[in-house]
Structure formats: C-alpha cells, structure tokens
Here is the input.
Amino acid sequence: MSLTSVSLKTKDLSLYVEKDKGLLFNHISCCLYNLPAISVFTVLLIDEGLSKDKVLITLKDKSDLHIKELSNLYWKILDMLALQSIKLSYADGQYPELSTLNTKSKSTQFQNINNTYQVADATFSILAHPELLQDITALLAPRIQQLQSVDFEIMITQEAELYCIYSNGILVEQCAKYLEVIPLIIDRLQILAFQKSDYTFCFHGAALATPNRNLLLPGESGAGKSTLSALLLDKEHQLYSDEIIALDDNFQISVIPLPIAIKSGSWEVVTQKYPHLAKAKIWHRLDGRQLKYLWPKSFAAESLNSKKNFVLIHPQYSDKQKGKAEVTELSVIDTISLLTASGYQLGFELNIENLEKFIAFIQQSTNLRIVYNNSKQVTKVLGSR
Amino acid sequence: MSNQNQADNSNASSNTVENTEQTRRDFLNTFGKLAMVTPVAMTVLMSPNTSAAPKSCRGNGRKKCT
Here is the structure.
C-alpha cells in the first residue's frame, strides 16, 4: 500500500496512511507526527465527531489495552490535534553569529591572520595560540583562501582551564581539553556553512554523487555513514558532505567540503583503503569518542546535482553480514522517520505545500535499509537497482 | 451555465463527497482492525521545538552534547 491522503472533516489537519501507519500534519502547530494504527483509528473516530466516551468504548472494543491506557492515548491525540500555534519557529535554531555576519574588513585582532578559509559560501578566519593554530591550519589546508574579509571571525582562548570559542565576538562553545577543540571547530564550520546557504531541509547524514544518482546516507552518529562514504569514494562516487544533507527548494544538495570524521571503531577498515590515516592525529568528541579526519581526494561538483534520481540508504554495519548485504525497502513513513530521527533542521516554516513537496520527493526516491559488512556489498546492491 | 450542466456539476460534487466519506469509512474499518495488533507509541517527526542543527555528538541536535 502506498502513501494515501485521507480527507478529514477537521480543517487544518492532514492525514496520510501507509500500510499500518499514519502521518498527521497539524497546519496550525506546523507539527508532523508518525502514528501507529491505533492512533490513526483514534484520530478518525475523533474526526467523526464522537464523544470521548464513545471513542473509548469503540477503542476498548478493538483493543486489549486497559481503559486507562486508552484514555491517556485519547488525551495525547487530542493534544496533538489542538489547533494552537507554537511560539517557536523552525528558524529559531540558527546559530547566533549568523545574525552578526561580519561585513567589514578584518577586525584589529585578526589583521595579522593570513589564512582564511572558505566552506561552501561561508568564509572564516581563525585566531588561536600558535600550537592550536598550527593544527587547525594543517587540517584545514585544502580550504585556505586569501580573503580580505570574512563572514565569521573565530577566536579560541584559554581561560581558567577551559578553551573558549568565540564566533564574531559571541561565546559559542567551551571545552576542557585541547583535543576536543578541533572537532568543535569542524562541526561549527559545517553548521554555519549550511545555515548560511539557501537550505530548506537539512538532515544529519552523508551525501554522495554517483554518475546517475545522488546517494543519501542519513543516520545517527555511529551508524556507519562516514565509514561507508569513505569506503565508497572513488572516481564514480564523490562526496557532497559526510555530515550534513542540506537540500534547497529544488532538492539540490549543497557541497560542504570538510574532512570526513572517522570514528575509532572504523580506523582499521578505513586505513586499509587510506594508509595515511594510520598517522593522522587523534581528536576527541565531547561525548568521549575518538576520531581522525580524512580528506577525500575531491568533492562532488554542484553541477552534478541536476535531475538525478535519489537513493536513500540507511546503512547498518555488521561484521556478521557475510555474502550479500541484507536489503529492506523502506516505506515513505519509515524513511521520513529515519531522516528526522537522526537530527534535522528546516530553513522555513513547515506548511502543507512544502510537506507535500517533500513527501513527493521521498516517494520518488529509492529508500533502502542495508545491513553490510563491506563497501563492495553496497556497490553491488546499488548496481543492481 | 445550462441547467443540465449545473445538475451534472452538482451530481459530480455530491459523488465526490460520497466517495470521500466512503474512503474515510473504509480507512476507519481497516485501522479499527489494525488497532488490535499495534503499539500505542506515536512520535513527533517534525516540530518547531525539535528543529536544530544536526550534530555528531550523540543526541544529534535533540540533546546537548555537554
């Protein structure tokens, strides 16, 4: 069963169903929900205009759940259906320095900094003590541009045993260890680069171009998307970004050229393809995980974007997956759930028109869950589709 | 518009309403049967409260890493 729109009596609510699940969009709160069958059923009963008691009696007739659980469900759904706006907006998550874009020439403190960096359309200058600056310059060497002025002036200071990161004069990050600074900087560059772009949808994941398709690998941190991206890269597979899937209103992917973060669990397998990774410096995330950075030989060109089919893969690495990769087709609702569960941001307020555009985009994509042990298994799956 | 056309349009409109009603009733029956075997959990997929820059620290924008 494909995704079907169900016409509701209640204005300002849109319901879509697919197999045993539903998607509900509240036009006023601008929220999108994933509903199991019992919740879809409850929504339909409430939409029919049934009283609370009648809804509960009907639910009790169909379900083994205790009346207390059904009553809780009823109130939760009523809350979800409430036609009240939320004070926050989707755009509230923009980083604060975006509202203070530096339009002048370099500030006095940055006058002697020669190296400036460009990531997508965002430009940066970074000031730190000599040892840290040396590490930053070495890592970001491929992004060095000689620019007279930049959007973001980033200054890293050490105050009372804490490293403080200021961006356009705003304190934006603090960490206790030297080794934690670089991952924070790379993450910030990545996020500022996409937030400064004309993105509409942004999801957490990797994006690659192949000759005929765009490959999206959404997933939570640790799912194996960076590892799989590094293993897939060759003449045929080029990287848009290993962390950020930023799409504009025509579903064109932004290129965010920064190094790939390879977590410690993947060093052995990735080093087989990239021997120089063995000597790369080890950095730490705030959550304690260790990583090394790897630059791809080249990035995808923006022009590769146009009119390509999309293949969306939820990668799951398993060392027990011998022979073929295990492939499962994902439903539209499961795909949207997966994309958003990994972290997302919208560049506009979600409304029914752009939601339907997004649903159409997912419906046209090939959506797969692939359990794999090596990149050859994945390329074989892609080649067969 | 001729009377015949008006009558045709009115019939078409009433057919559409009937079809919509029927479709909704069909889904009500289908999901009534499915309700027996599915869990209660429902999730917010997108909301202004959960839209945040995706981060690589565990939590991915929904929780702070610090």
